[in-house]
Amino acid sequence: MTLRTRTLIASGVALVAVVLMGVVLLAQYALTASVNIAIQDVISPAVDTSAQLTLEQANASGSLSDYIMLSRDASLDEYRQTIGRATTLLDQLRDDFADDATIADLIAAARAAQRGWVKTDAEPSITLMEAGKRNRAMKETNSEESWAAYDQMVAASAGLQGALNDSRDAASSAVASVTRVFGISLLVVGLLILLGLALFYAGLRGWVLRPLRSLRGDLQLAAGEPGHTAPIRPGGPPEIRAVGVDAEFLRRSLVHEIDEAQAAKEGLVQDAPLVAAMQAELTAPAPQTGPGLVIAGSSQSAEGVVAGDWWDVVPRPGGSVAVVVADVSGHGPEASITAVRVRSIVRAGLQAGLTLESVVEMAAGSCSDDTHFVTAILIEIDTDAGTLTWCNAGHHPAIVVTRDKDSSLCEPTGPLVSSLGGAWSVRSRFFSPGDAVVAFTDGLVESRNADGDELESSTVSQFIRGMDAPVRENPDELISRLLAQVRHRASDWRRDDVTIVAAARRS
Q1: What is this structure's pTM?
Q2: DSSP letter string over 102-125?
């Protein structure tokens, strides 16, 4: 099963689970909200209304008694107002509980009981009082029928109030129950989410991380082992397995090319000892390090195994270090012979402590009978003084990039080295910690892209300034990345020898 299919299945299951959990939680929330609204908007106000009803009926009875005993018209008015309010409260309850048959019946019973008391006690007693028959009115209001009607009204109202209280208690219990269920649902949802995360991590670890770790281990082993013979074992889901297959194919191709290169080198040593000796003489030095200074370089031949380019690093008597990059015109053995001679002269002059311009003059003197010419740049770095001094004999300008990513060029200070001679001078600038200088031959910038445009120094400078400070302070990594970017851009790589040297002051 592919990783994509597994991801789609896991995502689908997670989506369904989330939707179901969301529906359950939404239903629980809606139920809780509806019950709470019913309690707050209907049941609780109804309980208060029923209590007010009982009070109004009691006040009506008291006002009626005061009217009969004291013949006070104010008491009669008060009776009529209170019994009217009681009737209004019953009408309000009736409207609120029209859809609840049980409560509606109790309201109807309370209304009937109140009417019964009014017809049995209040209306006859008031009629007798208005006729001036106070004694008969007192007998009427204290009769067994009147008290029975009153008790029935009080009982009906109390029954209604009790039923409303029970309804509110039942609703509150329902809210508590729903709230518990809601809390349990949230807990279950949380546990399911944690379980889902655990399953996701387990799947990620088993399907992706473990195969990637295994693939990385094989790649590291194949890259670090001499000859790169350790096989890369494809594994895991199809997507990662495909990467492993491609990596193994690349490893086999590299091993094949290494074998061919080794065979070619052995043939060169056996059949062309002079050329092999020249190659050894022009072999660049190992990366150099000094107090706060790191230097590295690379040289690639356009034809065969011997390049007309060369570079060198020479310690100076005063403690400074000289970096040399040179390019002999033409290719092949003739250019290499000139390169060997000029390199030896330049190295000897630098080791002797001669000035940079004097060394270039010596090199020019040795080319008086040559048909080849040489471009060269000599850069002297003094870390104690924090300076960079150069003599550029018609060579492509080196690029200095500061710690703040400002760039400048080490422009030519004289003509190229040839039988025509010439005069050369030197220039200097500050070279602070975090700064880097990159010198190269024109083979780097003569490569063309798909549109036929050559690489310019500004683009090379842009590539270098785009690198992070740790990369710029690591010349070997800087060169590797710069060559990779330029080679990726070029459509005609290897049209000329390419030599590049970088020196950096560590921060």
Answers
A1: 0.52
A2: HHHHHHHHHHHHHHHHIIIIIHHH
